[in-house]
Amino acid sequence: MNVTVIGAGTMGNGIAHTFAQKGNNVFLYDTNETQLALAIKTIGINLDRQVKGGKISEHTKNETLKNIQCTSSLAQASEGATLVVEAIVENLEIKKSLFMQLNNLVREDTILASNTSSISISTLALASSRPDCVIGMHFFNPVPIMTLVEIIIGKRTSEQTLSRVKSIVVELDKTPILVNDFPGFISNRVLMPMINEAILALEEGVAEVEAIDQIMKLGMAHPMGPLQLADFIGLDVCLNIMNVLHDGFKSDKYLPAGLLVKMVELGQLGKKSGKGFYSYN
Ligand code: CAA
Predict the structure, then answer these.
(1) Structure confidence by residue, pLDDT tens digits, 198-233
(2) 21 ligand 1 Cβ < 6 A
(3) 112 and 194 housed in the same domain
(4) In the structure, what pLDDT confidence band is assigned to residue 118 with cuts at 50, 70 and 90?
(5) Which residue among 224, 229, 239, 242 has the greatest number of ligand 1 atoms within 8 angstroms of its CB, and so is best to mutate?
(6) Taking the CB of the first residue and of the last residue of the chain, which one, N or C, has fewer CB atoms within 10 A?
(7) How many angstroms is it from 141 CA to the middle of ligand 1?
């Protein structure tokens, strides 16, 4: 199957890696050539981890890399695509503009999936000339190893699109779970208030960073504490999602913690910026 992945950031490179590893022809598109080079480097490093851990062979690693072609031409990337997965910046206007461009570039029956973590699929579909082919495919970081894909059904998503996407996810050895199109879907409606609450508790001096994380790791068997997870996701992304929940439900229950807002203003975005609740080299 020909798959186009739009956006070569953390999620985009993980999605490209995952499809390519399953033998699909992947076009990885980004406007930024440096980002594309970085994505291929990251995919190589992650494939090496999988080889080292005995999860895949050296042969699969090489085939996976061969299955990925990088391009900064959207026309080249999307021509002949069976599926397009968009993983660009979480900005409604930018995503809408991309969906409008795709109207003239892809086939009538190409499935247009968004990896958005909170933006409404039904709203995005309004920018498309084929809203029945628009659906949410929400992957989780690190994509090669997280087995969930949250499938968001937009108001106009067709049965055919949904059924095809469910099969595609199963072919990736992942589990599709269906949700309706509400702010934050299920994953972030549940996860982000927990992270936000951990930040509020830190702000109020209830406990230190490490203590909060250890409590959730040892007491609740979470693989990462909420503050470490926030760093891993990106504090700007967390703030953005809290704002989507706050605006979408019009409830102060989802008001972002002051400390979260402050850290984002200071450019302390977590792992990607070198500093968040923890420091990274
Ligand atoms: N690619 C390939 N393999 C990877 C990888 C990657 N990007 N990252 C980790 N791995 C592999 C490691 O090589 C290791 O393999 P072996 O078992 O063969 O050694 C295995 O995964 C476990 O990794 P580590 O030993 O480095 O560390 P760990 O046991 O702490 O696991 C983790 C790391 C899987 C990230 C784990 O900490 C975890 O599950 N954390 C929570 C992740 C999470 O919640 N993700 C969702 C974030 S929310 C989101 O993405 C969506 C949103 O909308 C905000």
Answers:
(1) 999 999 999 999 999 999 999 999 999 999 999 999
(2) no
(3) no
(4) confident
(5) 224
(6) C
(7) 7
- 120 in active site: no
Q: Are 28 and 36 within 8 A, CB to CB?
A: yes
Residue 176 near residue 147, CB atoms below 8 Å: no
Q: How far is the CA of 159 from the centre of ligand 1 (A)?
A: 33
Q: Which two tokens stand for residue 36?
A: 């594309």
CA distance 73 to 76: 5
- Summarised one tens digit per residue, pLDDT across range 44-102 is 999 999 999 999 999 999 999 999 999 999 999 999 999 999 999 988 999 999 999 99
In this structure, the answer to whether residues 149 and 68 fall within a common structural domain is: yes
Distance CA 13, CA 5 (A): 8
Q: Give the per-residue pLDDT at 155.
A: 96
Judge whether 202 and 227 are in contact, CB under 8 Å: yes
Atom of ligand 1 nearest to the CA of 52: 18
Ligand 1 close to Cβ of residue 229 (< 6 A): yes
Q: Of 153, 180, 207, which residue is a domain's last?
A: 180
User: Which residue has the CA at smallest separation from atom 18 of ligand 1?
Assistant: 53
Domain termination site, one of 180, 214, 246? 180
The CATH number linked to 224 is 1.10.1040.10
Residue 150: active-site member: yes
Torsion on CA atoms 166, 40, 234, 152, rounded to nearest 10: -10
In the set 46, 117, 120, 196, the catalytic residue is 117
Tell whether 103 and 208 lie within a shared domain: no
Is 28 within a domain? yes
